[in-house]
Amino acid sequence: MLALWLGAAAPGASAQTLAQPANTVILEVSSATSAPNSGPIAQFDLAMLDALPQRETVTSTPWYDGPQTFSGPLLSDLLNTLGVQGTTVRAVAINDYAVDIPVSDLLDYPVILASRHNGNLMSVRDKGPLFVVFPFDEVPSLNNEVYYARSAWQVRHIEVLP
Ligand SMILES: Nc1nc2c(c(=O)[nH]1)N[C@H]1C(S)=C(S)[C@@H](COP(=O)(O)O)O[C@H]1N2
Ligand SMILES: [Mo]
Predict the structure, then answer these.
(1) Which amino acid residue places its CA nearest to atom 8 of ligand 1?
(2) Alpha carbon of 4 to those of 7, 71, 87: distances in Å?
């Protein structure tokens, strides 16, 4: 099994320095390598996600007519911030849809945890609050069912698997 380090921090080292959410928690990140009952290793409100470097992609998708603009932090930057180790990122949505995304995808492509669609926050009805967006137009080879299935919307929880 290939174990990839996301970032240089020691495991768990940077979680303590992460700000505490001041507003509604929209994302929880947990790691299978942390103690089972320790709860999430990080909780994020929107401002905390907005404080990370933002990446935008303009892309066609199977879900909208014509190219759309999506923006938010890179999933790789999010995990770098936490210094978690793993091979797989499991994105779990509000409706309990779950999909496993290999960490190699995050190293190979700018995969965005989008908080904005055409500059606007997304309601749950509109695939919000968070939507895993692959850069389909930047990397046309991503246009297949594997990556459509990894495009989880209404994401609420990210679990990092060893
Ligand atoms: N939250 C959530 N995201 C999801 C899904 C889902 O059911 N819920 N389905 C996935 C799958 S399997 C695919 S192929 C694509 C396309 O789903 P659609 O055919 O319903 O448009 O969205 C993905 N993202
Ligand atoms: Mo699918």
Answers:
(1) 97
(2) 9, 25, 6
